[in-house]
Amino acid sequence: xxxxxxxxxxxxxxxxxxxxxxxxxxxxxxxxxxxxxxxxxxxxxxxxxxxxxxxxxxxxxxxxxxxxxxxxxxxxxxxxxxxxxxxxxxxxxxxxxxxxxxxxxxxxxxxxxxxxxxxxxxxxxxxxxxxxxxxxxxxxxxxxxxxxxxxxxxxxxxxxxxxxxxxxxxxxxxxxxxxxxxxxxxxxxxxxxxxxxxxxxxxxxxxxxxxxxxxxxxxxxxxxxxxxxxxxxxxxxxxxxxxxxxxxxxxxxxxxxxxxxxxxxxxxxxxxxxxxxxxxxxxxxxxxxxxxxxxxxxxxxxxxxxxxxxxxxxxxxxxxxxxxxxxxxxxxxxxxxxxxxxxxxxxxxxxxxxxxxxxxxxxxxxxxxxxxxxxxxxxxxxxxxxxxxxxxxxxxxxxxxxxxxxxxxxxxxxxxxxxxxxxxxxxxxxxxxxxxxxxxxxxxxxxxxxxxxxxxxxxxxxxxxxxxxxxxxxxxxxxxxxxxxxxxxxxxxxxxxxxxxxxxxxxxxxxxxxxxxxxxxxxxxxxxxxxxxxxxxx
Length: 538
Prior knowledge:
The protein has helices at about 5-10, 60-70, 90-100, 115-145, 150-165, 185-190, 195-200, 230-270, 275-285, 315-335, 360-380, 400-415, 430-440, 440-460, 465-475, 480-485, 490-505, 510-525; strands at about 15-20, 30-35, 45-50, 75-80, 105, 165-170, 175-180, 200-210, 210-220, 295-300, 340-345, 345-350, 385-395, 420-425. By secondary structure, it is an alpha/beta fold. The strands form three sheets. The protein has a five-stranded mixed sheet, with helices on both faces. Strands 11-12-10-13-14 form a five-stranded mixed sheet, sandwiched between helices. Strands 7-6-9-8 form a four-stranded antiparallel sheet, sandwiched between helices. It is elongated and about 115 Å long.
């Protein structure tokens, strides 16, 4: 449908290619006549320029610079009446046209310019009118797919039928590939090669709104071949438009469904479902069966809330969190046959059905996958994560107990073993009892008795003694190591140690008094009673 130089030549008897035969596939958008030596400055692309070369009759080699400039400005070809003012095309001009693949066409002297211009423009206008009609027809075809509620697969099928080329749509939102191809090589490339490699190899068209890219339309066309017709590109643009509408509809439906799924899982986690029948009926709405027992696993992003201290630091944080959650969810779904999940602020909570015969083997697998998840978070974000795992519950309505245990495992584990670790609640031993003690009023009184004076001193004097004490305990009361960690002089550390001993009124060289302080700090961190004052977890 597009007019090319070779199509234009077919309209006229006597036209011959003098140079630039390799450029006969250049598209022609209009015809114009040369009336000034710098005509190239007004080229917009696709012009077939015709001339008698009268302006160059005294120096035909000026045609060489003209050809170079026309090529640079996107003209399609130069038609010249050889024999009128220039008897022969200079060899140097011919070589320039051949080197640039820029066609130089011989026009018989008996043809008036209007004999060339009118038929060519008429054909171009007719082609453009036909192109508009075809474009409207294509647009209606794609729009009808959306109206009828058909999906992405039908859009790709229609695109394949119109283009008559192997095509694919790489959906980045739902991580799916839609391929319509007679070529196994093309299909294998889409499935096996990475996104960047595919985009570098094939023609691609981004499906995007603003800065958000939903995916890419891929056509089996070399990146630099440039053989797609204008109508092909229009077809791809129409396909992109309806793909945007369809994906937005899918996103909306997914969000609504995810909302109700989240509500169901969250009801399970907070013990808001009282019968197995209710749990099974609601699970069935989403095609789920929860009849083989579950274990709760929590992945909690370390120090995420601390990043919200200032507005400047929070820019893009929620997007980064969502990316981390997507990364974790994909890993877990690939690792476990049945895996249900929901999000809580900076945590993602999974309910996982055992997929091996031995419960011991299953928990071993849980810990191994948790290590891999934490590694991926470290390597793909600026955060780390702590994992807590509750116990196996045979009945779905008891899963809330496993959820509570997993929460405790995260909190206790961070307190005792620091961040970026995996903790199974049943493995925490005596610390489970210590956690329960930390929530009692007696624990609050016990901590206040020994540390309240120190916290008050820090608050009144803008001091750092509580942080220093926490770091000292973490380093097993090693003054030198603590001074290095805090970047202070050893003598300053010794002074702080003496001052802390005076404020808390304890002999911190005595093993019994040290134990009291260590116990207080662990209780405080577990219960978070004094989290506003604590800068270092113990």
